[in-house]
Amino acid sequence: MGDPLQDAISTVQDVDWTPETNASPNVCQLQKLLYRRMMVGVNDGRFFAGSFNCIDKQGNIILQDALEYRPIRRSSPSPYEQRCLGLILIPASCRTSCHVEASLEEQLSGLSIAPQESTQFQEDGNNI
Amino acid sequence: MEAVADGGGLPPSSFERTGWVDVSHLIEAACADLQEGELIHGENFSLFAAMSALEIMDPKMDSGMESVGYRSVEEAIGDGAAPVNLDVQSTIDVMDHLLACEATWHKGHSLAQTVYSCIYLLQIERTSSHALLHSYCRIIHATCNALISAVSDARTHEEEDLFVMAYGLPMKREGDEKCLSILNSVEETINRQLRASKAPSSKKKILEGEESLQTNPDLEEGYCKAILSRLRFRKHFFHVLGCMRKPRGTGLELARKHIVSCLAELARVRKSSEFLTSTSYLPHGDDLEEKTTASGCNAVGFDVNINCRMLAPTPPRAIKILSWKKAIEYFEKLLHSLDVICSLHLDQMLEGVLHFVVQFQLSQPDLVARSYMQLLLVQDGKLFGRDPIIDVISRAAALPELSKNQEFQKTEFVVQLGKLVVNLLKVLCTNAAWQRRKLGKILQDWSVTSVQLELALEKEYKEVSNVSFDESSFIDLSKRLLAWAEEQTYWIASRFLVLGFELELYSSSEYCMVYWYMYIIYIRQLEIAQLKIVYNSDNSKRKGKKKRDCSKEAARDAQISSSILLLQCYICLSEGLAMMLAALSNEHKAFQPPNAFNTEEERFIQHFELLQRAHVPSHISYYLFKEWIAPARNAGVMKDNYFRDVQRISTLLRSRIPEDSEKLTEIRQIEQVAEHNRIAVNVINQARSYGSSLRVSFEFSQHPFFAVAVVKRS
């Protein structure tokens, strides 16, 4: 006791952040995507790929072990230059796209990823 | 599904048979369903850790943010940002800007944002067609490598760790050793061109084979001179760095010669600015003082953001490159500091070396100079790379037996003492703030070693009878070693306290307790010094010294007595100041600490905790301090006349010391402090009897850590 920093950490950790049990199907689905590799594009043309760690109501995303991909204008063998960044926070305001990695089977079934209400419509769209 | 992309403009996914699936809509929908303040996160999530996440598109955190500059070196070159066919004026500008960058680097910015913002340096091979530029880039590169290796070897850069970071930069390159020969041949060529330009026109025909730097014959000489001085500065500077790293300090003499040449060339470089500004077409109204080149023109071939993607360890803030004039001043200071290091007399006692380093630090030398100081002091675990530490200690403690006695050397505490001395020397070369913190910590190691020594003294006294050397000598040796170790401990303690003044860590309401503590430390130092004299006299009596030794001893005694007198001055000064401050606080309610945040006792602990933990000295507490200052009154300070005592002792001291200018300055400063404060005490006392009110403040106008009272009518 006595160390204010330690106290602050324990208070932060004590708070129960788990979502309520009566969460919406969309929230449940997004929750299933936690720890998956997620690729987020931002408005200056870069992409960030990392393990999906957290998202808040405003849509700010935290990725773990993230890599930055930066397009190079005069291209060398690879059109991207990458570097390791670690834990990053991507504000919703600069996010332009968001993809998660999925196996071909999942892609084919298509079910687990799309938002619930629109599933039917999406599948229809695909069939056309 | 909206998009099942397997590539399609995105970077590749990590496994085969996987692809990217767009989830933007899902995220949008889920976020709408979330409650305010609710998060979706896994089990291992911690909000505290999340706070340290790098925020993308935050200009202060995200170094990869799209900036206006080029995205790669190739792109910059392709865009013509660094043309190789530079004319002579532009080449000089590049040289000057590089010098400014180099100084900025030394001052604590990263290499990538300073020197290596030069596109020519990033691809040196490109410049090979331009001999002059090529040779200059090569030597800059070699110099940077030499400096990085020196600073990282010395490890004096704890808080300035950007200096050695060179991630991703092309630092390892073949042919660094050739840089001098390349430079020499270019220098030779320019020298010939200079001669040609000076030659009367009749002779010019003979020299016509030579190419000139540019087309205007009237300017040729000025350009040649400007370039020559720059090349020669680089050459000598590189030599200085090389000589200073020669083992056992063997290159110091040569280094000094190169430093002299270096400074001379630097003066010529500075002077060349007149010529260069006259030939350049500078837009009016531009401030030359702020420019990074001598001519005032902007140098081509630099892009501050070119390495920004390599700068993961540095925040992506914009930095300001020092001006060219400031850079020259910096290099002059650096060379002077290096010259001071080279002037170190390698045959002196440890005490002298410690004093030298402390004096050296007074000029606040920068990182590079401090690193070279440390590299000279400690090489291969030996002092100057040649004196084993054990011999250094034996000389410093005046224990010739120690270096002969192999058995005693192997004892744990002697080995430990050796390590502590090496560590102390290294710590003294770090910057003031870091140094103070480290000194506070190593104090404990010193005091623990002293305690061990004491214990060993008692214990081994019993076992010693079956050891090969006689017990009385063992006891004697240990005792004197103990006295020496304590002496060092108190020296470190006083340095620790004094550094607090340099770093402005004490507020004026705390001066009283600091001076009081210093007084206690000095008293202990005096006691130990006197103890040493007793030991020495015992020793010489027992041995019946030869005549020659006696004269040596006499010189030593004179030195001891002068250092004792100096200590007495310090004692009187610190006691006087502590009493004066206490009296002011007791009688005038001046220098009372504000109680809003912490009590006086808490501050006492904050300042002296490390000393008390190391028992330097033991049984010192806040209550002792309070007890001591409680009766302090101005009249008492007048009567005890501490400052008059200082003046008395200093006169005595003056007669004892030889024409040693450094010590004389110290004495003069002390006398000034004493005189000012003596008068101040009188004035305060008189004002009190007349009932007028005064305002007293303290400043360090006469001495770095003994304050002078300034009295004003309020």
TrEMBL record, chain A:
Database matches in SUPFAM superfamilies: Sm-like ribonucleoproteins
Domain Sm, residue spans: 29-90
The organism's place on the tree of life at top rank: Eukaryota
Cellular compartments per GO CC: NatC complex
Name recorded for this polypeptide: Sm domain-containing protein
Annotated organism of origin: Acorus calamus
Automatic annotation (TrEMBL), chain B:
UniProt keyword list: Cytoplasm
Coiled-coil spans in chain: none
GO cellular component: NatC complex
Domain NAA35-like TPR repeats: 341-709
Pfam families hit by this protein: Mak10 (PF04112), TPR_NAA35 (PF25789)
Main location per the UniProt record: cytoplasm
Ranges of residues in domain NAA35-like N-terminal: 36-173
Positions of transmembrane segments: none
Annotated compartments: Cytoplasm
Keyword Cytoplasm: yes
Entry similarity comment: Belongs to the MAK10 family.
Protein's name according to its UniProt entry: N-alpha-acetyltransferase 35, NatC auxiliary subunit
Organism name: Acorus calamus
Lineage: Eukaryota, Viridiplantae, Streptophyta, Embryophyta, Tracheophyta
